[in-house]
Amino acid sequence: MRRYPGAAYIVGEMFEELSNNPTARITMKKTVAIIGAEGKMGSAMACVIARAGYRTLISGHDYRDLLALVGRLPLLEAKIRMQVPQADMGIVIDPKEASWEADIIIPAVPYEAQAAVAQEIREFVTGKIVISVVNPMNQGFSDLLTPPMKSAAEELAELLPHSRIVKAFNTIFATDVKVPDSKDQVADVFVAGDDSEAVTQVMELVRDTGFNPVNAGNLSMSRTLESMMLLLMNIPRRNTCGSVTGWKVVQRSSLPGRPTPEKSTKFAARNIES
Ligand SMILES: NC(=O)c1ccc[n+]([C@@H]2O[C@H](COP(=O)([O-])OP(=O)(O)OC[C@H]3O[C@@H](n4cnc5c(N)ncnc54)[C@H](OP(=O)(O)O)[C@@H]3O)[C@@H](O)[C@H]2O)c1
After folding, report:
1. Residue 53 burial (CB < 10 Å; 0-12/13-18/19+)?
2. Is residue 128 in a domain?
3. Does some domain include residue 257?
4. Cβ distance 222 to 147 under 8 Å?
5. Residue 246 pLDDT level (bands cut at 50, 70, 90)
6. What is the distance between the alpha carbons of residues 153 and 220, in angstroms, rounded to a whole number?
7. Atom of ligand 1 nearest to the CA of 114
8. Atom of ligand 1 lying closest to residue 137 CA
9. d(CA 43, ligand 1 centre) in Å
10. How far is the CA of 271 from the centre of ligand 1 (A)?
C-alpha cells in the first residue's frame, strides 16, 4: 500500500495535542486541497481558505511538472505566507495525493480541464466534498458551453459519482475573493448541492472566508448559478455602472415601506388561517 506523509502528519498532530492536554477536545481542522492553485481563482481561494484557518494544500498541474516543483507553487506559498503568516499550508504537487489528503477538494481549473482532472482524482475523492467553482464560458464570455439542461457541476457529479459535489464561489470574481467586503456589502456566495450535510459544510467554509452563504438548493440549481456569472460578466459591457463584484439578495425588510419579515410571516399565517 502506498503511504502518504500527510496522513501520518495529521495523526502525529492529534497525538501531540492529546499528550499536551489530555482533556482537550480534538477539533480537527478540515483540510482543503486546491487543484490549479497557481491560477487566478485557485490562488485567491488558497489565500482566503488559509486565512480562515483551514489546512490548505496547494496543488499544481502535474507532479511531473518540474516548473511547478521549483518555481510557481513555492512562490505562491511564500506570497500567501506574507499575507497570512499563521497559514497552515503545504504544497502537494500531485493532485491525486492532494485529494487523498483533503476533506474538501476544489478543482479551480478551466471547464475544458474539468474532465481530465476528475478522471485523475476520481479514486481519491470517494465520499468527499468536491466544490465546483467552474463556469463553462466560451472564449468571448458571451455564452455557456454546456447544453441547456446541464451545468458543469452536474457534469462533474457524473464524472465523480461517489463524491459529494457542491457548487459554490462561482458567482464572485477571483479579484474580489480576497476582499469580500465591497462598500460595506458582503457579497452573497450561493451554495447548491444534493447532499445537505455537504452543503452545510460548504456554507460554513463560505462564512469562514468572509462571504455571506446563501443556500441555493439542489445541484441542478448550478445551471442558474453558472448563468448568473455569465450575466454578471456582461452587465458592465452593456451598462455604465462601472465594474461589478457579485450578487446580493435584497431582503424584503430592507426596502422602505415594506413590511418586516416578521409582519409578512404573520400576514401569511392569517391568510392560511382564513
Ligand atoms: N477568474 C475568476 O474570476 C473566476 C471566478 C469564478 C470562477 N472561476 C472559475 O475558476 C476556474 C479557474 O479560472 P481562472 O480564472 O483561475 O483560470 P486560470 O487563471 O487560467 O487558472 C487555471 C489553473 O488551472 C490549471 N490547470 C489547467 N489544466 C489543469 C489540469 N489538467 N490539472 C491541474 N491543473 C490544471 C492551470 O495550470 P497551468 O497554467 O499549468 O495550465 C492554472 O493554474 C474556471 O473554471 C473559472 O470558470 C473563475
Report:
1. middle
2. yes
3. no
4. no
5. confident
6. 8
7. 31
8. 47
9. 10
10. 50
CB of 156 closer than 6 angstroms to any ligand 1 atom: no
Ligand 1 atom index nearest CA of 112:
28
Residue with cell 457534469: 155
- Structurally, the chain folds into a number of domains equal to 1
pLDDT in tens, 164-210: 999 999 999 998 887 766 666 788 999 999 999 999 999 999 999 99
Q: Which residues have CB under 8 Å from 56's CB, separation 6+?
A: 31, 32, 34, 46, 49, 50, 87, 88, 89, 90
Helices and strands per DSSP (H, E), number in the chain: 11, 10
Q: What is the CATH number of the domain that holds 119?
A: 3.40.50.720
Q: Is the CB of 61 under 6 A from ligand 1?
A: yes
Question: Residue 77: which domain range?
Answer: 5-249
Residue 254 lies in a domain: no
- The distance from CA 45 to its chain's CA centroid, rounded to whole angstroms, is 7
Q: What is the pLDDT of residues 18-75, one digit of tens each?
A: 455 544 444 578 999 999 999 999 999 999 999 999 999 999 876 666 665 667 888 9
267 within some domain:
no
